[in-house]
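Q: what sequence does this backbone want?
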């Protein structure tokens, strides 16, 4: 939302091609604005500088490409309609250049058609803001993408450190294995009854005994060695079937009662007439390797959790198996848009930290509702929340599930108060029909929806009334037998003409 004329900042009569707003002492990040509109340049530059960002602004494509290389900004705000070359070309050039390809680019343009947005994402943009923009929306989107960038950098750094540690550990083990092989490996001969016939000092050390003689007197492998009951019997079954077993991993008790992991290679020794005489083999302590593997699994799960926090589970699994373009058509999906009414004016009265904290609390409550009703959160756009039912996994009653969530959202949002003590209200719109869904991006992923169903759901919200849930005729047909729906009458819907729309009021019958 643009400010009233009397509140617009004073603009220079002819903007310079390169604007520099000096940042405060504590900088939250470097942002480059590429826009030839003086109003947008000054407004965004002053706002972001006041919020703690180091802001640079240019007005042409050539200047932008030169500035990006020298400045290396953390994020770029890019207009589409520019002199010399448009924003699509600039973005593609940035993504084709290794030093700049990882910088997130948010398109900010007056172009509002679906194809304009698709071209922006295809060029490498991570987000799209439509002019006239809301300042709070711009701030939240910038903070969101900078946070995602930082999280990915931290995860990559953690994985690199862990991989380096594992590699160094493997090199160290390989270096000393050949030198100390005899003393590191335990060797033994074992009777058919499970008693040690012989053992070397290395085996005694592995098991925590002072000598091989003490080990042979104290340990009965069938009763007091293996942690898991029946493990020794499993080993004997394999030896009976195959005659030899390699890398048989088990947990065993040491003398002091502590547990370690060992790997055994054992073979059955037989007489010339094929009579089984005894068993012999070698033992290695693999406890450290097991701990390393557990640590690696832990960090891998952390990486997977990060991916699941961005994408639906089925999409994340598909992306890991086959990292190609993921796009699907769904014939029946219900889409909900919800907007916090008067949140823009609230955002001008509170700090950025307080603004994001409250948005996080409200949207986290909505996330819990989405999980409760089996719906998929798609994204947040400033103070707007988008959720869908019926994808990526089909859902029989997704229209009803979205209706239940909409009614619950109205109850939940009243629990939150503005700085003036007034409860917040939602303007909600719902539509159902076919959509296209897919993953946008290569390194920074976004799961999003497109199509007329999405557009009309957005219109139901934007042309609704605070505190009401407006639904399309298609939703009315699916819900009117179970829910109270009140006709709003004929509404001139931008892009669709006159439509009969309805207010969702609640359940028709008490449950």
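A:
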């Amino acid at each position: 939302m643009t400010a009233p004329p009397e509140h617009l900042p004073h603009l220079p009569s002819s903007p310079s091609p390169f604007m520099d707003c000096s940042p405060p002492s504590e900088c939250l990040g470097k942002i480059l604005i590429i826009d030839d509109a003086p109003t947008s340049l000054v407004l965004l530059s002053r706002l972001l500088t006041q919020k703690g960002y180091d802001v640079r602004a240019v007005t042409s494509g050539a200047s932008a490409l030169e500035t990006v290389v020298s400045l290396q900004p953390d994020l770029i705000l890019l207009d589409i309609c520019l002199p010399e070359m448009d924003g699509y070309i600039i973005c593609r050039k940035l993504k084709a250049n290794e030093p700049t390809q990882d910088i997130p680019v948010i398109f900010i343009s007056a172009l509002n058609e679906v194809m304009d947005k698709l071209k922006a994402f295809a060029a490498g943009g991570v987000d799209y803001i439509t002019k006239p923009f809301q300042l709070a929306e711009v701030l939240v989107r910038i903070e969101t993408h900078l946070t995602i960038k930082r999280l990915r950098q931290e995860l990559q750094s953690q994985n690199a450190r862990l991989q380096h540690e594992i590699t160094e550990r493997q090199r160290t083990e390989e270096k000393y294995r050949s030198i100390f092989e005899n003393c590191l490996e335990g060797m033994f001969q074992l009777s058919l009854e499970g008693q040690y016939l012989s053992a070397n000092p290395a085996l005694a050390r592995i098991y925590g005994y002072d000598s091989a003689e003490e080990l042979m007197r104290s340990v009965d492998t069938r009763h007091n060695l293996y942690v898991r009951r029946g493990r020794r019997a499993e080993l004997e079954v394999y030896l009976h079937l195959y005659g030899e077993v390699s890398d048989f991993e088990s947990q065993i008790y040491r003398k002091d009662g502590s547990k370690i992991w060992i790997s055994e290679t054992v073979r059955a020794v037989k007489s010339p007439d094929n009579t089984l005489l005894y068993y012999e083999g070698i033992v290695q302590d693999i406890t450290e390797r097991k701990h390393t593997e557990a640590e690696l699994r832990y960090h891998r799960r952390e990486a997977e959790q990060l991916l699941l926090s961005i994408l639906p589970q089925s999409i994340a699994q598909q992306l890991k198996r086959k990292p190609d373009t993921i796009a699907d058509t769904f014939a029946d999906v219900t889409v909900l848009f919800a907007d916090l009414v008067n949140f823009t004016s609230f955002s001008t009265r509170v700090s950025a930290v307080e603004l994001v904290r409250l948005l996080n609390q409200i949207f986290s409550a909505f996330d819990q509702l989405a999980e409760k009703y089996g719906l998929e959160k798609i994204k947040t756009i400033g103070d707007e929340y988008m959720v869908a039912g019926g994808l990526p996994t089909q859902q029989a009653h997704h229209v009803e599930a979205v209706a239940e969530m909409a009614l619950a959202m109205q109850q939940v949002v009243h629990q939150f108060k503005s700085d003036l003590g007034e409860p917040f209200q939602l303007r909600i719109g719902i539509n159902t029909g076919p959509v296209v869904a897919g993953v946008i991006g290569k390194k920074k992923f976004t799961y999003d929806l497109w199509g007329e169903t999405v557009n009309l759901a957005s219109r139901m919200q934007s042309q609704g009334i605070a505190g009401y849930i407006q639904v399309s005729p298609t939703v009315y047909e699916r819900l009117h037998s179970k829910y109270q729906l009140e006709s709003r009458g004929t509404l001139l819907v931008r892009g669709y003409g006159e439509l009969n729309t309805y207010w969702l009021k609640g359940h028709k019958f008490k449950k």
